[in-house]
Amino acid sequence: MAAILLDVDGVLHVSGEPIPGAVEAVNRLRADGHRL
Hints:
By secondary structure, the protein is of the alpha+beta class. It has one helix at 22-31, and strands at 13-14, 17-18. It has one domain. It is 28% helix and 11% strand. The termini are close together.
């Protein structure tokens, strides 16, 4: 897989507030070498 595409609104945050676990999930994907 070359990259992972995530929708931001409603997936990573709602009204500017991060969804619980979203930051950790993105950090894990990056640490595992995925391009976001």
